[in-house]
Write a structure and sequence with these properties.
This protein is α+β, with helices and mostly antiparallel strands. Helices cover about 25% and strands about 30% of the residues.
């Protein structure tokens, strides 16, 4: 087994206490202020954006839980994040900690195409323009990389959100196809 380990990235199980993204240590200069003084239920918060891939997976799991998503194995979530072309996180700072409130990622062939995945905003922060801001950030990064075909999959209840920010169903009538193991 040791022979094969040198061919693969470390995909061991996630260490619950050692996977938080300490911005200053793991991703220096990575976060930037996105929205100053966002009013959230009477609380004024500054919202930051980060492209750090070293995300606290337990905090991401809680964020996904808050919108009712099915849980996925954290070791696989880590691999998906590690293999993503870009990840975008939204958070606010509370004392010395950051609180994750939004996330999205994209995979890409790095030249022509990218697909956006796992777009999520905490319900307490929905309806404040953060979903649009998150999508603007990820599209901006993809366009900066000169990727012109950007796709995503959307649940029926959020199709209008994506239409309002410029996504369309394929004008050529191309339909996505799926293969699932039986």
């Amino acid at each position: 087994m040791a022979f094969w380990k040198k061919f693969f990235k470390n995909t061991s199980t996630v260490n619950k206490h050692n996977n938080a993204c300490n911005i200053e240590k793991m991703c220096p200069q990575d976060s930037k202020l996105l929205i100053k003084h966002l009013d959230n239920s009477g609380q004024t918060l500054d919202i930051y954006v980060s492209t750090c891939k070293n995300i606290n997976l337990y905090e991401l799991e809680q964020l996904c839980d808050s919108v009712g998503w099915v849980r996925r194995p954290l070791n696989k979530v880590k691999i998906a994040i590690d293999h993503s072309f870009i990840t975008i996180s939204l958070f606010y700072k509370s004392k010395d900690n950051k609180k994750l409130i939004g996330f999205a990622r994209a995979t890409s062939d790095t030249v022509f195409n990218a697909t956006i995945w796992d777009v999520v905003i905490h319900p307490k922060f929905q309806g404040k323009g953060l979903g649009k801001a998150l999508m603007d950030q990820i599209i901006q990064h993809l366009r900066y990389a000169d990727i012109s075909t950007i796709t995503l999959f959307a649940d029926p209840q959020v199709v209008s959100f994506y239409r309002n920010i410029g996504f369309i169903t394929d004008p050529d009538g191309v339909k996505g196809m799926f293969w699932y193991p039986r």
